[in-house]
């Protein structure tokens, strides 16, 4: 099932008023592939993908069929569901040499989970979104499943998205807040004013806190990881139930997140 995060409600890149038809086709294909990437490994039907990408069903089917002919998507002949195709795997394996940091980050994600007992994650920024790349569960038996590998959130939603957004340049933040419609999809806690206050708090603390704003009772904390140019490109985060993120414990969790985020940033700079 595809949730709101798979759609492009927050940035209207699919408008029929798009002045360049070629760019419009690329945007539509990108929206379909992003939507499909959130459904792995079970895939999705044409109607689901069309809804997520804000396309008509015939348009979505035509584009998916063309992508299938090139190997970018595949279709299960029994269920009729679409899946990412082998050509994307081959392209991704080449891109991974430049962009994939999961090998370096995995030990930090595991260490955070083991030290805290919570679920720990690595998320990456992709344009106006974050996408979860790694998850490792700690020993505490009650877990939150708001975040999982492949899950996307707009920047400003969930602790990883706040941690990254807070350390972007001010003009970039204002551009994202102006384009996004987070309040409409995620509620008043994600209004521009509320996000500015959360950004200020994150800059003051060094880490972001999500006090159950995505799912009630499910808390999260995140710290940004920076690329070689000093831009926040990834985030390490923790999620769990509210009682595990008490006011007394949050500073300890924040110190752990910042320590691992700084160490990972240094390792990436030396790579």
UniProtKB/TrEMBL annotation:
Keywords: DNA-binding, Transcription, Transcription regulation. The keyword Transcription applies. GO terms for molecular function: DNA binding; DNA-binding transcription factor activity. SUPFAM superfamilies: GAF domain-like, Winged helix' DNA-binding domain. GO terms for biological process: negative regulation of DNA-templated transcription. Residues 87-270 form the IclR-ED domain. InterPro entries: GAF-like_dom_sf, HTH_MetabolicPath_Reg, Tscrpt_reg_IclR_C, Tscrpt_reg_IclR_N, WH-like_DNA-bd_sf, WH_DNA-bd_sf. The keyword DNA-binding applies. It comes from the Bacteria. Residues 23-86 form the HTH iclR-type domain. This is IclR family transcriptional regulator. It comes from Leucobacter weissii. The lineage of its organism: Bacteria, Bacillati, Actinomycetota, Actinomycetes, Micrococcales.
């Amino acid at each position: 099932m595809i949730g709101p995060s798979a759609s492009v409600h927050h940035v209207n890149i699919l408008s029929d008023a798009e002045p360049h038809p070629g760019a419009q086709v690329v945007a539509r294909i990108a929206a379909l592939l992003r939507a499909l990437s959130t459904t792995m490994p079970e895939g999705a039907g044409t109607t689901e993908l069309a809804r997520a990408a804000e396309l008509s069903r015939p348009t979505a089917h035509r584009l998916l069929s063309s992508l299938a002919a090139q190997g970018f998507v595949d279709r299960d002949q029994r269920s009729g569901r679409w899946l990412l195709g082998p050509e994307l795997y081959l392209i991704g394996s080449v891109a991974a040499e430049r962009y994939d940091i999961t090998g370096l980050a995995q030990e930090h994600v595991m260490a955070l989970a083991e030290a805290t007992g919570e679920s720990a994650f690595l998320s990456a920024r992709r344009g106006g979104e974050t996408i979860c790349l790694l998850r490792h569960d700690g020993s505490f038996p009650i877990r939150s499943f708001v975040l999982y590998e492949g899950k996307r959130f707009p920047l400003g939603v969930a602790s990883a998205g706040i941690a990254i957004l807070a350390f972007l340049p001010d003009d970039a933040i204002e551009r994202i807040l102006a384009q996004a419609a987070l309040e409409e999809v995620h509620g008043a806690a994600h209004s521009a004013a509320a996000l500015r206050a959360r950004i200020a708090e994150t800059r003051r603390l060094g880490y972001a806190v999500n006090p159950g704003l995505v799912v009630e009772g499910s808390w999260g904390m995140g710290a940004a990881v920076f690329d070689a140019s000093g831009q926040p490109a990834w985030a390490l985060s923790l999620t769990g139930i509210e009682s595990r993120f008490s006011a007394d414990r949050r500073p300890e969790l924040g110190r752990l997140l910042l320590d691992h985020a700084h160490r990972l940033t240094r390792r990436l700079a030396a790579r």
